[in-house]
Amino acid sequence: MRFDPLDYPYPSRRNCVYAARGMVATSQPLAAQAGLTVLQQGGNAVDAAVAAAAALTVVEPTSNGIGSDAFALVWAGGQLHGLNSSGPAPRKLTLESLNRAGLSEMPRYGLAPAMVPGAPAAWVELNRRFGRLPLAQVLAPAVEYAERGYPVSPTLGRNWEAAYENYRRNLAGEEFRPWFDTFAPAGRAPAIGEIWRSPGHARTLRLIAETAGEAFYRGELAERIAAFARRHGGFLDLEDLASFRPEWVQPLHVRYRGYDVWELPPNGQGLVALMALNILKGFSFGSREEPEAYHLQIEAIKLAFADGLRYIADPQSMDVTPEELLSDAYAEERRRLIGRTALEPAPGRPPKGGTVYLAAADAEGNMVSYIQSNYMGFGCGIVIPETGIALNNRGHTFRLDPAHPNCLAPGRRPYNTIIPGFLTRDGQAVGPFGVMGGFMQPQGHVQVIVNAIDFGMNPQACLDAPRWRWVEGRTVEMEHAVPEHIADALARRGHAVRWALGSGGFGRGQIIWRQDSGVLVGATEPRTDGHVAAW
């Protein structure tokens, strides 16, 4: 990746970070430091990524937890490996069981949307296949943060307070009491700068490390999860946990102006980013600050999302293949729909044929793009007592329409929003990138890649640049740093432009790219408490 390190048009809170021996970029300085500590103890980039991921469950519980799902792209041995560690629906969770419970749509909170957690299995599997250090040593920084405590950072504190107020108003059942006991033990959210500890969390992490995940999926912790679900009318049971295994998958890519952009295949939504880029490669851009550049990206994302929300599901239930959706012929068909004015997106017919993100790299050439999330902040509001295990609510994205490929079914994985990205050129790694934040993630990936490749912006500039976010129909939100003439021009083209309140919905990303010299270049978001720890 070639760029002028000082040539970008937006004021930056920081410059790119450069290092030669190793680098970890996350949304939390303490988690980045946990990864760097493991690197300096003799670990590799995979060890560092697992250390940071485990630490993030402690130091950013507003976005992820031990009950999260996880995905990873790992560059090792000169090739890219993909890991899908998203959990399926419990075997007893059916359309009929929801109907009996009086539910006409998948709820956001409670035990019904809780899928089998995948993150602990991801840590174990990554450590087993690529790691160098014992898992207990890799998870030790996370255990220490949970046991001794840490001061709450600014963005974390604001998100924690918002979550507490939401849960205080909306979560009234006895099954939600452990969440308040764990995350609001003083009857409120911890304040910015206040020390927060979670001894149950520390014990759980220690058990996962000492048993290589067995305690979580087939031992003491599994029994606690199943017993709590049974007591409160949930669906997760011991068989669901014991049968879970992460899946190594073949990553997907599109060729974009001489680079290969990589994402994981469904059930994740990385396919949306690839479809949008496949459409955009048929256009050429002038200046980033031309309305046409915004218009084309927005229209491509709308078309890609229309297809993604129609077709992406557990691969076993999809009625088209990713290859069909990524074919050049289909991209050209979708590209022809883009004109001078905003369109109402609709799916086509292809021819048959809260989240945390982190990036890590080491001096040996290993690089990791990793993401894990409970979904919607703390997840479903369920915490297993005295364990710190906050369960995800990934099942909320299931449809309850039997004709839809993403319809709820036992053992089926739902449409998943979290996606790690990776960039290569001529068969060599450029590096990991990601932008967390629900359905913003493919939109963030597209904007980062276009900024970098089309406009030659350095990694920090790619993340600093003001963003837009397609919402629905013709509605698109703009950060206030977007020039007004851009918004006015888009409105004249039929876009329903609205200005966002703050930057909370525009994602939070990290990038680590390797230069031809081997030097690592890292960047992190100005929209979060992010940090690049370098060696």
Helical content class = 25-40%
Oligomer: single chain
Rg calculated over all Cα atoms: 22 Å
Strand content: 15-25%
Our measurement of the CA-to-CA distance between the termini, rounded to an integer number of angstroms, reads 21 Å
Shape: globular
Q: Output the CATH topology of the domain at 250-355 and 418-521.
A: Serum Albumin, Chain A, Domain 1
Strands across the major sheet, in which order?
1-20-19-15-14-9-8
The number of helical elements comes to 18
- Which segments are poorly predicted (pLDDT under 50) over 5 or more consecutive residues? 5-9
Instruction: Note the main sheet.
Output: 7 strands, antiparallel
Query: How many E-type strands?
Result: 21
CATH class of the domain at 250-355 and 418-521: Mainly Alpha
CATH superfamily of the domain at 250-355 and 418-521: Gamma-glutamyltranspeptidase, large (L) subunit, C-terminal domain
Structural class: alpha+beta
- Average pLDDT, to the nearest integer? 94
The assigned CATH architecture of the domain at 250-355 and 418-521 is: Orthogonal Bundle
Explain how this protein is built.
It comes from Symbiobacterium thermophilum (strain DSM 24528 / JCM 14929 / IAM 14863 / T). This is Gamma-glutamyltranspeptidase. InterPro entries: GGT-like_enzyme, GGT_lsub, GGT_ssub_C, Ntn_hydrolases_N. With 535 residues, the protein is α+β, with helices and mostly antiparallel strands. It has a domain at 250-355 and 418-521: Gamma-glutamyltranspeptidase, large (L) subunit, C-terminal domain (Serum Albumin, Chain A, Domain 1), CATH 1.10.246. It is 36% helix and 19% strand. It has 18 helices and 21 strands. It has helices spanning 29-40, 45-59, 95-100, 119-130, 135-148, 154-170, 177-183, 199-210, 214-218, 220-231, 238-242, 270-280, 291-311, 322-325, 328-335, 441-454, 459-464, 484-492; strands spanning 17-19, 22-26, 69-76, 79-85, 150-151, 195-196, 247-249, 252-256, 259-263, 356-362, 367-373, 383-384, 389-390, 421-425, 428-436, 468-472, 475-478, 496-499, 508-514, 520-524, 531-534. The strands form five sheets. A seven-stranded antiparallel beta sheet has the order 1-20-19-15-14-9-8. The chain has a seven-stranded antiparallel beta sheet with strand order 7-4-3-11-10-2-21, with helices on one face. It has a three-stranded mixed beta sheet with strand order 16-17-18, with helices on one face. A hairpin with a 2-residue loop joins strand 14 (421-425) and strand 15 (428-436). Helix 2 (45-59) packs parallel to helix 5. The longest helix is centred in the middle third of the chain and has 21 residues, at 291-311. It starts with 16 loop residues before the first strand and ends with a strand. The model is unreliable at 5-9 (pLDDT under 50).
